[in-house]
């Protein structure tokens, strides 16, 4: 067990998800690539919402989901992200705090509304995201709480945070503080299109400043522009302390310089909505890792947490992950 | 088939539901009676929300759910209810229109925010509602569209609408217009506590102006202040054209002067959240009735629609009820 104030501080775009079920034809008509995350402006947000069916609103945001997951596992969780002082901002703040996460980022009082992501679920349970960043563009280095970061065993950031300019600066500042305090920095590549947008910057940042990397197979291949999974694995292996590479139903692999642990996916799950699978995988691993568990144990928690979140609509746990772990895993 | 513009116009409090799972102890601590609907003021809304866990937001409102149900069945559905021009109001308007319902009520531009109901789901799947009426108090007679009402085969109103003063006046105006146009008026008693608040007014209004009454067993007993179901049945029977009395898993009974049809509940359903059961029962019956089906057929649709809505969180259909009816019922 670590004795820091927080197991993890997660930093990301603070978003309320707007979930709606659609048919595949809708993606075609709207020129959307299944499973992608598309950034949209306000006009497109209005247009797309008008075309969508009835929806439900659930707090989300990739790193926010991870923060909620760490808390649900019983970990000490902190979150930094920007909402506005509007109704959706109040919903976001309520939900993340009610999940047991420390959340103290000042809400913006002017400028764009709280961010929302229109998440379209096709009958195969896959999600295609359309994100209006709204107030997220207001996040900046001033929002980084130096004391909280230096007292977090891991500071975890989503690649999506590089889209708003201030987010990237906040990200770099947080990484610097974490390393100066001899803590770890973790990054998720978020999305292969996001990797496309920032490939060189991500590659440099990984070498300089990332201890624990999360990526799925496509994102890793995109990062190193290879079609070959083994080549991508070899490329990342000597650049970070730990790389967790997820492969959907093929499970995941956790790599260090001298070890490789294969983790099975939970195939017993009735998959309803894949949103949040990667976020909760990261939550499970980071909870285990920061609480002194082995890579295999941390990976098993990661797999269980990801399995829970894809069994329902919404990207945050719908049940206590702590109870789930104690019921399903033998970590002694 | 009727040739009116709308099968039903539903009038009610326009509300966004905020669902959260709780343990029974929470109800005790907060002095809440399970299954009740409690009206709360803004301060209590803030206090209760702060105590609640993470939630999800779904458009609701009793008559709004019924309107969405009629549309999902393929019926011509109209809705009248008041939201503000705020984010939750936009969500409500989007969802009911996306469900295929005609919704033209002007949003208020000042005064209280859009209404929300904090709906607490206990592990037994029962719901306890805490409603902040917000902008609903702005609904008044001016919002009643005379042409739409006179072209609706049934104008259906929720008892809850009597809580805001303007709602009651709107309600009476709509009933008068409907009857002058030789259309039917329908009322749901909504909630036994609501009946407590308005017993004498409801009793008078039923005699004067209700053709089709919906009530559950408790509400009907409360109306006539009797513990005896048969007495309550006898009391209502000669006062309305049709009375649909729901009895939870005991099913329902549909009464006219000279007939009585027993409808079985769908006991095969895995009950997740009972919110909206009565609303969708009404939707199913009204759709069938206004489309020339028999009482037994209309009741079967009512039972199927109620069964669908209690199989998931949220009080509106999560699938096409039209498809469900065509798959499950033989109405030829």
Question: Could you provide a short overview of the structure?
Answer:
The structure is a homodimer of 332-residue chains. Chain A has 332 residues and is an alpha/beta fold.
What would you say this structure looks like, in words?
Two copies of one chain form a homodimer. With 332 residues, chain A is of the alpha/beta class. Chain A has a domain at 6-11 and 62-90 and 139-328: Ribokinase (UDP-N-acetylmuramoyl-L-alanine:D-glutamate ligase, 3-Layer(aba) Sandwich). In chain A, 39% of the residues lie in helices and 21% in strands. Chain A is built from twelve helices and 14 strands. Chain A has helices spanning 24-29, 42-51, 62-72, 87-98, 146-150, 165-180, 192-209, 217-223, 229-237, 277-290, 295-309, 321-328; strands at 6-11, 15-21, 37-39, 56-59, 77-80, 102-103, 115-121, 127-132, 152-158, 184-188, 212-216, 242-246, 252-255, 260-263. In chain A, the strands form two sheets. In chain A, strands 6-5-1-9-10-11-12-13-14 form a nine-stranded mixed β-sheet, with helices on both faces. In chain A, helix 3 crosses helix 10 (277-290), helix 8 crosses helix 9 and helix 11 crosses helix 12 (321-328). The longest helix of chain A has 18 residues, at 192-209. Chains A and B meet through strand 4 and helix 4 of A and strand 4 and helix 4 of B.
